[in-house]
Design a protein that fits this description.
Layout: E1 6-11, H1 19-32, E2 37-42, H2 44-49, H3 55-72, E3 79-83, H4 88-97, H5 103-108, H6 110-118, H7 120-123, H8 132-135, H9 137-146, E4 152-155, H10 160-177, E5 185-188, H11 217-225, H12 246-254, H13 259-268, H14 273-300, H15 302-330
Parallel strand pairs: 1-2, 2-3, 4-5
Helix pairs in contact: 3-14, 4-9, 9-10, 11-14, 12-14
The protein binds tryptophan.
Tryptophan binds near residues 9, 41, 43, 141 and 144.
């Protein structure tokens, strides 16, 4: 029998997940877990690279993230959810990989560049206070992926440079020490990015324009009522363009049944924005109801969440230790066997 291919994916535990994450990656992960051997990492070590001064935030978000995963339908019997910091072999491999990448190459990584520019408070106006750890996080991410010899990494398009850099490092390792690692492939979801309630191209916590998977019915209602609509529509029966309206945009995601009717009425001027938003809020609430129910279950069974993380980490570490053995032998540091 063919062994299942390995998927590695994960998130930094720095905040709650929103519907952008859901359509961009989580939905896909739920599907993939039936066909692949899927590892999902909670990247707490990576989260600390730009939250080293706020460890409590990272800690608080570990269980939040795990519950978000479980609420979405990640099944711990099919997927392995684990904590990055509890696999010290990843840190070890990061150290070995760091010899195989130049500082200049890291400074050119577009994702790192963008993030440094966004984090002026931490890294200075021109990145002059950049830490060694943050600049090097692509190396640690390469170790995350390589230590399971992952075949596939499903990611958002912003992460493509990370996978490219991983491939380079792995190739270099294999060419110097002999073939240990698989070159992973990035797979970008077909719905890579969901726009924010305000029309911003990105939904995000810092932008205050997100609908979270854990939002209550009231919060969803309130947020949808505040969403950006076609600004040329002033009166209730003005004709409008649903294609330039965030409510229309989300109807496409949540209202397969009513979408056509809603769009036609909007264009004809026979549906006002309030009615349109009410319909959308109702649909989102219904769509997310099973997730809220699962979340409630796990919130009432937090011990079970702990157990899932402990078991997942144990399983992941076992695999990481096997690969690490091959690494050390290839690098001739397998002393005293
Ligand atoms: N960089 C990812 C993020 O910001 C998290 C992450 C860490 C990751 N290691 C990974 C993603 C390995 C995919 C594969 O969310």
């Amino acid at each position: 029998m063919n062994e299942r291919k390995i998927i590695l994916t994960g998130d930094r535990p720095t905040g709650k997940l929103h519907i952008g994450h859901y359509f961009g990656s989580l939905q896909n992960r739920v599907k993939l877990q039936d066909e692949y051997n899927q590892y999902i990492l909670i990247a707490d070590v990576q989260a600390l690279t730009d939250n080293f001064n706020n460890p409590q935030k990272v800690r608080n978000n570990i269980k939040e993230l795990a519950i978000d995963y479980l609420a979405c339908g990640i099944d711990p019997n099919k997927s392995t959810i684990y904590l990055q910091s509890m696999i010290p072999e990843v840190a070890e491999l990061t150290m070995f990989f760091s010899n195989l990448v130049t500082v200049a190459r890291l400074q050119r990584n577009p994702t790192v560049k963008t993030e440094i520019a966004q984090k002026k408070d931490l890294f200075g106006n021109n990145g002059e206070s950049i830490t060694y750890g943050f600049l090097g996080y692509p190396v640690s991410q390469a170790a995350d992926i390589a230590i399971f010899n992952a075949d596939i990494v499903p990611v958002g398009d912003d992460q493509l440079p990370m996978i490219e850099q991983t491939r380079e490092i792995v190739r270099k390792f294999n060419s110097i020490y002999g073939k240990v690692f698989t070159e992973p492939e990035a797979v970008v979801g077909k719905f890579p990015r969901v726009k924010g309630l305000d029309g911003n191209a990105k939904m995000g916590k810092s932008l205050g324009n997100a609908i979270y998977l854990s939002d209550s019915e009231e919060e969803i209602q309130r947020k949808v009522m505040g969403a950006l609509t076609d600004t040329t529509k002033i009166k209730k029966d003005d004709k409008a363009n649903p294609e330039v309206c965030m409510v229309g945009y989300y109807h496409k995601l949540f209202s397969s049944k009513e979408k056509e009717e809603v769009f036609n009425e909007c264009k004809a001027g026979s549906r006002g924005c309030v009615a349109c938003k009410k319909q959308l809020a109702k649909n989102i609430i219904e769509y997310l109801a099973p997730l809220r129910e699962k979340r409630r279950y796990y919130e009432q069974h937090l011990n079970l969440v702990d157990e899932i993380l402990i078991e997942g980490t144990k399983k992941a570490r076992k695999r990481a230790m096997e690969v690490m053995k091959q690494v050390k032998s290839a690098m001739k540091i397998d002393y005293f066997k």
